[in-house]
Specification:
By secondary structure, the protein is α+β, with helices and mostly antiparallel strands. Helix content is 37%, strand content 20%. The strands form 3 sheets. The chain has an 8-stranded mixed sheet with strand order 1-5-6-11-10-9-7-8, with helices on both faces. A 5-stranded mixed sheet has the order 13-12-14-15-16, sandwiched between helices. It binds adenosine monophosphate.
Length: 418
């Protein structure tokens, strides 16, 4: 076949999709336990939502968005992340008016034109949780606790919470100046990309992964010396809140995240196990008190996170975590001869109505029907194989020795032994 899935986009096949169902079931329970309601958001939005919300100088907006013009000449963009859409929806529907908080979550595909590699795709899936309408640090602590609990229930090991504060519009300009002066003096040691973006966004040099920039960034001024009293107090309370809950974290002064909207708290959860050339952040988030205003809404503080489902499943596979039991068809019905094929169809219907999962060879005419041997081969993947005999009885195998049963006995036996 000459048409394949586009580069960086993959099919989640049945051998993997059942693992996703397990992860999402577990996540839905944690979200409910933390008071978050599920919301379904559109996959495309007006382009302006992201250019204004995520920030014009971010990698996402500058070079990663899938933007297109529709037949009505509107500029639309496949969502590269969920937070901006979540805030837009909450404001549009008045979900956090009168200072009432909205606790929401969603999951689904995001789209970024990135260089594909293991754990990094152009269509990838995120779980996203947001608390809108609370300015205080307890909401940050609760959000971090929610993400940690999500991973604890999935039994992921070796995760590390990296924490930072990125300040606010009051304290960031002075820090930005200090970084500009420092990186400016070391300009020749920076990679080409960072040299080019230094004036526009010096904070991004801090999280550049190139070896040369890393060495320079390690000795860069720390934001902690530049936080305004409000941001410093907020940061202290987040740290003491996490300590109170017994949640370990490490400070990372180079953690700035790739989206402009963050204020104060920024954090990531990193896995030691996505090491061999794969991306190692499984979750990232923080506070974004000015996002709502930047998209034209009233001041609405917010805090949340996004976690990558593709990467969670990858880490769980690497760590041999349990995905529960894969659903298996209970009974596969096999017709020994052509005359009993209609009986297979009727019996499958009866079993399914009784809540027993059943399959059979759906070739319903002699022409398309498969041989007894071929049917038996398919049947082996089911819990039981049920052969329809010429005399109208059923031979059930799969539970030790074969049993000869009538139809009524068959349903009772399965109900008792499943
Ligand atoms: P971000 O929205 O960039 O803060 O990313 C949050 C999480 O989404 C990351 O920690 C990853 O787990 C996941 N993620 C981000 N970009 C990708 C991608 N291109 N492919 C797969 N997962 C991704």
């Amino acid at each position: 076949m000459d048409i394949q899935a586009p580069r960086g986009v993959r099919d989640i096949l049945p051998d993997e999709s059942w693992k996703w169902a397990y992860v999402l079931n577990s996540v839905a329970k944690v979200m409910a336990d933390f008071g978050h309601s599920e919301i379904h958001l559109p996959i495309f939005e007006n382009t302006e939502l992201f250019s204004r919300g995520v920030g014009e100088t971010t990698d996402i907006v500058e070079k990663e968005m899938y933007t297109f013009t529709d037949r009505g000449s509107r500029s639309l963009t496949l969502r590269p992340e969920a937070t901006a859409g979540m805030v837009r929806a909450a404001l549009e529907h008045g979900m956090c008016s009168q200072n009432a908080a909205a606790r929401l979550w969603c999951w689904g595909p995001m789209f970024r034109y990135e260089r594909p590699q293991k754990g990094r795709y152009r269509q990838f899936f995120q779980i996203d949780a947001e608390v809108l309408g609370i300015a205080g640090p307890a909401a940050d602590v609760d959000t971090i606790a929610l993400s940690v609990e999500m991973f604890r229930r999935l039994a992921l090991r070796g995760l590390r919470v990296a924490l930072n504060s990125v300040g606010c519009p009051q304290c960031r300009p002075a820090y930005r100046d200090a970084l500009l002066a420092y990186f400016g003096a070391n300009r020749d040691a920076l990679c080409e990309t960072c040299q080019a973006r230094l004036e526009r966004n010096p904070l991004r040099v801090l999280d550049c992964k190139s070896a040369s920039c890393s060495a320079v960034a390690d000795a860069a001024p720390a934001i902690y010396d530049h936080l305004c009293p409000e941001c410093a107090a907020h940061f202290d309370e987040v740290k003491s809140g996490l300590a109170r809950l017994g949640l370990p974290f490490s400070l990372d002064k180079r953690l700035v995240r790739g989206l402009d909207y963050y204020t104060k708290t920024a954090y990531e959860i990193i896995s030691g196990d996505l090491s061999q050339g794969a991306q190692n952040a499984v979750c990232g988030g923080g506070r974004y008190d000015n996002l709502a205003e930047s998209i034209g809404g009233p001041h609405t503080p917010g805090v949340g996170f996004a976690a990558g489902i593709d990467r969670i499943v990858l880490v769980m596979e690497e760590q041999n975590c349990s995905f529960g039991k894969r659903a298996q068809t209970e009974v596969y019905i096999v017709a020994r001869d052509d005359a009993s094929r209609p009986t297979a169809q009727v019996l499958a219907g009866k079993l399914r109505s009784a809540g027993i999962s059943a399959a059979y060879d759906a070739g319903d005419s002699v022409k398309y029907a498969r041989s007894f041997k071929a049917q038996m081969k398919s049947a082996l993947s089911a819990r039981w194989q049920c052969i329809i005999e010429a005399n109208g009885t059923f031979t059930l195998s799969g539970g030790g020795s074969d049993l000869t049963l009538t139809e009524g006995e068959l349903v009772n036996y399965i109900e008792e032994h499943r």
